[in-house]
Each structure stands twice: as C-alpha cells, then as structure tokens.
Amino acid sequence: MRIDVLTLFPEMFSGPLQASILGRAIEGGLVEVVLHNIRDYAEDKHHVVDDYPFGGGPGMVMKPEPLFAAVDAVAGLEPAKGHVILLTPQGRLLTQSIGDELSRRERLILVCGHYEGVDERVREHLVDDEISIGDYVLSGGELPAMVLIDVVVRRLPGALGSEESLTEESHAQGLLEYPQYTRPAEFRGWQVPDVLLSGHHAQIAAWRRQQSILRTARRRPDLLERAALTEAERRLVAEALAEKD
Ligand code: ADE
Question: Which domain holds residue 126?
C-alpha cells in the first residue's frame, strides 16, 4: 500500500511514523508513506497557501491552486490515482469498518486542512471522501491523518505480530474488549479472576465473551444494536441494563 500525505507540517509526522507497529510496517515495506509539503506547490514567489475569505469573516482559507497542483502531481504517480481523502471535522466519522474498507485500497492520498477551512472547490472537485476523527475541532488535519494511517496500517495483513490480536481487540466484532490481566495473580490484594488461572480454555473463552458483552452494554449500548448476539446473550444484556437503572 502507498499513502501520500499533503500537509503544511510534514515534520509533525516523523515521530509517529517511526515508532511501534507503524514504524515496523514501513520498515518492512508493507506500506510506503510519502509526505509532501503543500507549500512547495504554491507557484507565487512567497509560496502563499491561504487567503482571506470572500464575503469577509474571521480566519484564513486554504487556496485551491496549491492543493490541486499537489494532488495532480502525486496522483500521476504509480500505482494510479488513489482515493483522495480530506481530513475535516465535517467528514464522516471514522470507525473500525471505515478503517477496514480503506485498508483494502492500494493507494490513499490524505489532504490535511488548516486555517479556518479549505476553499469549497477542493471539497467539490478534488477529494473523493471527507473523514473526521471525532466531534471536536483540532488545529489541523495532521493528527487526524496520523490516526487514520494507524487505523488503516494495523489492519494490513502482517502488520501485527499475531493475527489473533486483530479478532479479539475492541471493535473487531462490534464489541469492546474483555478485561485483560497479567502477572502477578495478586497485586495489592486485588486478585485476577479465578477462571483466567484455571487453564480451562472453553470456560475462559465463555467468560471473556460475557465480559465483552456486559462491558459494551454498560459503556457503549449504542454499539450493541449492530453486534451479532444470541438470544441468551440478549437476555444477559437486558438484565445488565436493568440492574444499572
Ligand atoms: N481537522 C480539524 N479537526 C478535525 C477532526 N476532528 N477530524 C478530522 N480533521 C480535523
């Protein structure tokens, strides 16, 4: 996979792209992340990338020309034009399933917005998709782009050490993950649940499934609407929610 990032602040990406799973995926050639400074595509002498909004109002707006020139230059490269995504608080909310969908693409081009926004013609004629990472406003699209890259890259086959961690983690099956423990079995008087020490795999799996469901019911009942639960599990949820009231 190849991900091109168009940004005014390429230096913001160096830490996250080098560490942990992402760093290893890049190092191992699973994904190539190429950073482009939008300012390099501004053709005037001072490399101006923003201007006052027509009609007045506060703040500055990113000009269309450097963004179109940057996408044109990058999209012309092989493999052919990727899916162009603008990171913006006005986009569709990023979820695990959007991450999965994007991870199956060969190429992505991420456009990081800044200032008060980008010229509307960028939205209308340049980008294919707009993504938000949450209902809050950040100073720019850089952190959201890094979040998106992380979500996408960790879904690439081979990015994680063990394939299992993908199917068990939160949101993988529409549920939050069960509680995890490691040694010591007793810490400051707090015990690890007996079942986890029993070595009984079927009972451990059943306990984990139940904990996942209960935790999701209590913390994120909205997620349960789309989770595949058995009749008995639905009853468990109803009881847990009744208890809460
Ligand atoms: N740019 C500024 N805030 C953002 C957000 N919440 N998601 C995506 N891009 C953004």
Answer: 2-153
CB-CB contact of 145 with 132 (8 Å): no
pLDDT category at 36 given cuts 50, 70, 90 is: very high
Q: Distance between CA atoms of 7 and 27, rounded to whole angstroms?
A: 22
Higher pLDDT, 101 or 226: 101
Backbone angles phi, psi at 91, to 5 degrees: -80, 180
* Last residue of one domain, picked from the residues 93, 125, 153: 153
- Nearest residue (by CA) to ligand 1, atom 5, is 89
Residue 143 contacts by C-beta under 8 Å, 6 or more apart in sequence?
12, 133
Same domain? 103 vs 13 = yes
Distance 232 CA to ligand 1 centre (A): 40
Q: How many other C-beta atoms lie within 10 A of the C-beta of residue 55?
A: 5
**How remote is the CA of residue 114 from the centroid of ligand 1, in Å?**
9
Q: d(Cα 30, Cα 22) in Å, to the nearest integer? A: 10
pTM to 2 decimal places: 0.92
DSSP string, 108-170: EEEEE--TT-B-HHHHHHT-SEEEESSSS--SSSHHHHHHHHHHHHTTSTTSSS-THHHHHST
Looking up tokens 């990058």, which residue turns up?
74
Residues 183 and 142 in one domain: no
